[in-house]
């Protein structure tokens, strides 16, 4: 059986489970379950702390894992990203009292739950600072006098605002949930179907199926608006001089494209969700 590590709780847990269900895998019944076996697909899932997942995968005890890119980098484990999964996006940033700049980093005390990322960033910039490792709620460290600045995950920025802190400098990294495997692992034929299914979910989420009727003379213009992934399907309509077009279209652009299609005479424009796909 293929063994896959998933976050047992936290920001990535629910969305990771949802993505696997959309990919056709059985998931745990209750959030307390530590494992789940999907016999039909010959996959076993292990629910672990997201921070530990790269370690399990790097050791070879588990074949694949889903964790945050920031957690992977912070761990320094011998694991690599196979696929970015499009959820759990965040940035990792320095923050301090208003007016703090990157010039203040040298010689400062930096509180963080991600010392691996911070030390790597300081090294790259040739700065020396003292990194104070905290378990969480690091934004409090400045007002409590434990640190001069923090380096932490920022999603909406609400937590920083509440603590009276402001980000400074460029983002240290951009993170999202990623599928990982051991660095340089031999190609495993059991991994390919998982990868294809997850890629299928990503495409199904970001595309819709667009169908419309248009006069044959406007077809080329219409098709240039909806080129699809390979090429759109064009079929004759019973009504003389009209064709029906079907094409996968980026979800984010579909309303603009519908307006433009309507303007060139397309009618009966329908949008449907794609439940699953293999491209
Ligand atoms: N709003 C968010 N807060 C925390 N982590 C987030 C957020 N959005 C995305 N993430 C990502 O989730 C991962 C952290 O997950 P983890 O489960 O360790 O943290 P958590 O949700 O803060 O849970 P915990 O209660 O253990 O602190 C990181 O990869 C981080 O980039
Ligand atoms: O930018 P925001 O939307 O405010 O989200 C980012 C905050 O959320 C996380 O904290 P969490 O709630 O996980 O607490 P923790 O610090 O104890 O992990 C993270 O560590 C930041 O503090
Ligand atoms: Mg947290």
Automatic annotation (TrEMBL):
Q: How is its activity regulated?
A: Feedback inhibited by histidine.
- Pfam family for this entry, one: HisG_C
Q: Is Transcription one of the keywords?
A: no
Q: Please verify whether the record's keywords include Magnesium.
A: yes
Specify the superkingdom: Bacteria
Q: Where in the cell is it found?
A: Cytoplasm
The residue stretches assigned to a coiled coil in this entry are none
Query: What catalytic activity is recorded?
Result: 1-(5-phospho-beta-D-ribosyl)-ATP + diphosphate = 5-phospho-alpha-D-ribose 1-diphosphate + ATP
Needed cofactors: Mg(2+)
**GO BP, sorted A to Z:** L-histidine biosynthetic process
Pathway(s) where this gene product acts: Amino-acid biosynthesis; L-histidine biosynthesis; L-histidine from 5-phospho-alpha-D-ribose 1-diphosphate: step 1/9
Q: Where is the signal peptide?
A: none
GO CC annotation: cytoplasm
Q: Which residues form the Histidine biosynthesis HisG C-terminal domain?
A: 204-274
Q: Major place of localization?
A: cytoplasm
Q: What is its EC number?
A: 2.4.2.17
GO MF assignments: ATP binding; ATP phosphoribosyltransferase activity; magnesium ion binding
- Keyword annotations: Amino-acid biosynthesis, ATP-binding, Cytoplasm, Glycosyltransferase, Histidine biosynthesis, Magnesium, Metal-binding, Nucleotide-binding, Transferase
* Domain ATP phosphoribosyltransferase catalytic intervals: 49-200
The function of this protein is: Catalyzes the condensation of ATP and 5-phosphoribose 1-diphosphate to form N'-(5'-phosphoribosyl)-ATP (PR-ATP). Has a crucial role in the pathway because the rate of histidine biosynthesis seems to be controlled primarily by regulation of HisG enzymatic activity.
Protein family membership: Belongs to the ATP phosphoribosyltransferase family. Long subfamily.
Q: This chain belongs to which protein, by name?
A: ATP phosphoribosyltransferase
